[in-house]
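Data availability excerpt. The first of two example chains:
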Amino acid sequence: MPFATGVLPTVLPTVFSALLLLAPAGVPPASGPPSASASVSPPLRAPAVPYDGQPLHGTALFSVKAANNAAAQEFTVSATRVSRIAVYLGSTAATGRVTAQIRRDKADAASVVASRTVTLESLGGAGTGWLEFPIGADVTPGTPYYLHVQATTAESKSIAWYGTTTPVADSLTSWNYDRAYWGGWRASTSSRLAFRVNPPDTERCGETEPCYVPTSALAARTAGLLSNGTATEAVLPSFAVGAAYVDGSNVLTLPSGRRRYLPAGAQKSTVVPADDPGAQAQIAESRAWLAAGRVPGATPDRRAAAQRALLSMRALLQPNGAFAAAWAPPWEYSWPRDGAFAAVAFAATGHDEEAYRILRYDADTQRADGTWEARTKLDGSGPPDSRAWQLDGNGWVPWATWQWYRAAPAADRDERLRVLYPMVRKASDHAAASLGADGLPPASPDYWELGTDTPNIGTAAPLLAGLNAAADLADRLGQAQDADRWARAARRLSDGIAVSFAPLGYPRTADGTHGRDSAAAFMAPPINGAPGDVRAALDSTHAALLLPNGGLSPGNDPGFSWGSYAWTASTSFFALAWAHLGETGKAQGVLDWVLSKRNGLGELPETVNGSGRPSSVAPLGWTGALLLMTELALEGSPQPAPPLRPVADGARRDGAR
């Protein structure tokens, strides 16, 4: 009988890797409907125009779950061979097999011309979308055949063939087999199944219509990025199915073999033949950009991950230097924190221009008092809302400036630093002035973007790094008074952290009432020179925040729950810290977990849900930057932490409060 409307949710598809099992022609599915129960078919007719496809799929029409159900679509073609067929299928079952056959008689299993089977497991489980079957069948042009579909599963779940209840002009009959309801086959008077026979490349899934995607993959809003240097476009999960980036580029190869890319000067992507000159030129340019820098990675897989991280970060970087956290509406803003890590990663991999562009944007968007908004619109016009500003930016930006300076070409780096120096001075003076009698900064929203009642390590640690970095930069430009002032402040802050945070294992807040925090890793290189007790603190914090899915929660504050979601950036903090502390085994273990959570396009997601699936958005630029910095350290090229500048005893006393 017709499938109950609303039983199967309509979902948008994303990545799959299907294992197709070829069945010899003439072999029906094991549980195929018995021909004895079939109704008599009306005389076959050969229409003047081939009926080889119907794309509408708004309704789950017929169950195809064996042994009581199947469906068939009559069709004709003008060709002598059928090489590919497609049906729009929806399944709430995660396991089982779907078999598509071309038959001469829908009810006669002995009339099979060709057969193909796919497992639901290979598709990623339950899902919905266009399911393509490569198939080889010699046919007679103009002769009616039947596309027969039946599925088997041990689950008490639904598997249905979708279509439309709207009449389709000049169509051939769609057939529903329901042994319990109809007693066999029954012709539909108006409903028509969604199918394609020998679809041209422009009608293949992944072009204008999505391929079958597991429902679980829809936890992520985005799957990848297209970019032309001036514009960026997200690859939605529904159009990442079966696609892959052309190596060394942000150009996608689709299941059809054609390519999707964002042409130069365009705001919207297009699909072109594989040899399109514009796409080829963009691929060549991307590869040249990569070759001009360094792509770290000890194995081909890790090098591929680093390459993808670089290209995704480049796609997130705007021409004005704004660095988008990711490419979905809530993330399409520039955070000083994310941009700082991106600048460091760009500089460390030899992409000086990109790193400096971010820092210039920071200078342009700094507030008059030396602080930054929590985030800004990508055009630099200001914050998108009233979210509270965050003091940690006053540490991250000077730290990133120092890391850039170290890696920059020596010939003109002092001159370029002088352009940034007013920004560093305002940021560092504000940071120094914010320290209280205990040497700590005031309570401020941290990278969780949540406020605390007492000072937190997520603000204190970056400010310490920033003050040390600023003092060293001041020395390099001969600004001794600035250097002394910031070095004294850094000493006071370091002492305050040692008194208030260190004895508790560097928890989230100085009062120890808000649990552990992954920001404890900010006390390790390359952010800060590691205190002697930081190794033990990293071990205990990692153990406290470890989730069943293998990743880390940002923290375990009793007053706030992150649920079962692991955050790839928070997890990567420990890979970065351990790699710089020489604890290679621990670093590689964490890194392996992070890399195992890449999606089908090789992108790093923001979060991983309790089932171990990528979620939220992909890629996240911050995680990509952390990956690159970790890989460099594991290859023997670590980034140092800003040095703690010596201060005379008298100067220390003079600076104390």
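And the second chain:
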Amino acid sequence: MTENTDYKEYFVSAQLDPAYRTRAIDALGDTEIDVLVIGGGVTGAGAALDAASRGLSVTLVEARDFAAGTSSRSSKLIHGGLRYLEQLDFALVREALKERGLLLNKLAPHLVHPVPFLFPLQHRVWERAYIGAGVALYDTLGGARAVPMHRHLTRTGALELAPALKDDAMTGAIKYYDAQVDDARHTMTLARTAARHGATVLTRTKVTGLLRDGEQVVGAKVMDLETGLEHTIRARTVISATGVWTDDMIKMTGVEFPFHVRMSKGVHIMVPRERLNMNTGLIMRTEKSVLFVIPWAEHWIIGTTDTDWSLDKNHPTASAADVQYILDHINSLLREPLTRADIVGTYAGLRPLMTGASKETAKLSREHAVAEPAPGLFVIAGGKYTTYRVMAADVVDAAAARLGSDAPSSVTADLPLLGAVGYQDMLDHVDEVAARAELPVQTVLHLLGRYGSLTDALFDLIAAVPALREPIPGAEDYLAAEAVYAATHEGALHLDDVLTRRTRISIEVPDRGLKAAPEIARLIAPQLGWDAERTNAEINQYYDRVHAELAANEADDDEAANAARLLAVS
């Protein structure tokens, strides 16, 4: 392990403000590090935390923002995957359910919460026995340790929970539990926790080439996209956790990898909570996969699709056909059909699936693999969001073996993320906490569910500037303090970072955040050193992005939607 005490002592701040970034960028070439992680999605952030918590010196670089790709565009579920039981993939389900329990009970109880689902049954007798056995196995494999056991319901009992469903939509149902997460906030919190343990974490820092010593990979050349300046990072090992960009890394490396990654597009829509009279989430079979209706604060998330994608990786988008597919399937169960007018937001993400024998993306592997295609370069691919921690530990194990260091085994199974410790105590005493902060209880519950015990830092901001307790105009579910905190602590560098990933305003309000954008820009401009020209440019760039996405949503197919979306630069 590299002896580098200055490195470990210097970067122990989890306050990812512009000053932190400047210091970190300036120090990039100072010394050789143990591990360079390329990719700031959930697996990359998890790998940075895993390596740093073992005592290794670590730098993470991300070309855009934390979770800017797949890790902010998932179904936002932490689950074992009921459909994998049908594929007899018991090992994957067991592993995922174990991780679900860790996240719910120890690692991130402030960010991961149980959620009930209703599985409508369409056929009498045989289907209840078949699905019931599967759900019972699901509980046995780990579910019941973290969430309530499943229950069988009659049609009458199911309709009491979900009056929005047609009387003839089912013969009965099974209620079971899984968990949900704000994926973007969880990934960002992983990165901040890695920083707290000594990792340097940098966004808007793009790898432009790999450094080689003969055949061995010994670091990378990176460009700071905020300044255009290039830097060199020397590293004893390099981990590529680049998801759907894995094949781009293959081209950069110039050697053949033992696997490739194929992209599958998943689309979701958001509708207001009051539009569906239900007290539970919903899961239904489709001809290709499954469709979820997931409670999300004041909304429902409905999705997903599962279609091949070979177009722009940075900005996958939902076409009119994708939206219609979702509406057609959910409306087959509803008394009052949803229409496009009910939709307040859409988003599309790309799943990184390792190529397999089948041409159908729904059947490609969701398991992960680690390879060392060139000495010193380790690639992690495949997997699913829920098992990010296992994936991270596996790839760091491989890197540590090459280092020949005395680094310990992974400790992340026992390492709570920032905001976890103290969360339950604040939640148990929420009335007193709200009274001390002079905020409504509902507001404090909202903050606790996003920041955990770090909510105290937002209270400090509000105490210093009382105006920050006010809701953001156009996005009243969020406080002004949350926008400021995103820039001063959470590494947000652009307006889009705040509207899309630190909050979810871009998919939660009907205008996609157009009204809120100028106010948020005004709040974060002083924190990020923006002048009036830069502030207006950020606002206009966000406006262009929203209009391009709305135009894409009206396009008939993927090619037309992709062309419409690419008219905006971000």
